[in-house]
Amino acid sequence: MDGVVNVHKTAGPTSHDIVDGLRRIFGQKRVGHAGTLDPMATGVLVVCLGKATRIAEYLTATDKEYRAVMTLGVTTDTQDSTGEIIAESDASGVTPEAIKLAAGSFVGDIEQIPPMISAIKHEGKPLYKHAREGRTIERAPRPVTVYSIDVSIPPGILPGGLNRAEAELTVRCSSGTYIRTLCADIGEALGCGGMMSSLQRTRVGRFTIDQAVTVDQLDEALTEGRLADCVCKMSDALEDMPAVRVDSEAEIRILRGLSVAASEGLALGSTVRVLTASGELLAIGVIAEIDASLAVKPHKVLAGASQ
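RESULT FIELD:
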């Protein structure tokens, strides 16, 4: 089966665990996710089946939305509640207005230093493995974009030895943004430190949490013979990408890796879906200038990719 599944990940399992579960349910080996979630995190995990693994990079690059609980007054070595506490401070005096102002300063194009507990590789090994071995690797800041941060302040103070204030953040951001780092940076800006105490991803591109299915629900669908209803077609998964529909003659050219004429209104260098006359995803193409005319140049031909 080729397509995309919008999985509602629960807290506890790794993203790899979820992928293994879908390999079992769908009875196929070619399964992968389009952007990991930490074990403690819940929410949308986009999983690609069969040929759809070849479009994972485009799904990974889409904008994301998260809902996180930020705890102020405590700093950990992982920037979240799974780590060791390295500093504590009294945050009871931090006002809602100050939190909103500090959070607002991180909206826009910013740079983040990736946390050591991340999958970014250094010398071929993920940073989290270096961290487990007691090493700290110098990391260069990376550009990301935070489109908005909405702050909600629940009443009351969290219990603990020192007063810790709590705030809920709803963040819309570009791919590659670390929410735990955002929480830590906001806490640092407030002078009391902070960490992420819970995280839920509510949207990845067009895939939203209200449409997501759990692994248990997929098991039920398998038993009831309606598993295909849980799979999104590849062409629909990339619906935000401009489309070029081709006839049978142009389809043959695309399958041979040859360019075809582009529709009007497409920008030079843009990435497009190449669809068959029936609307199936045939290829991913790039708009190029060939012989003084705009054309669709095949970049990834998906037909026959599983053979």
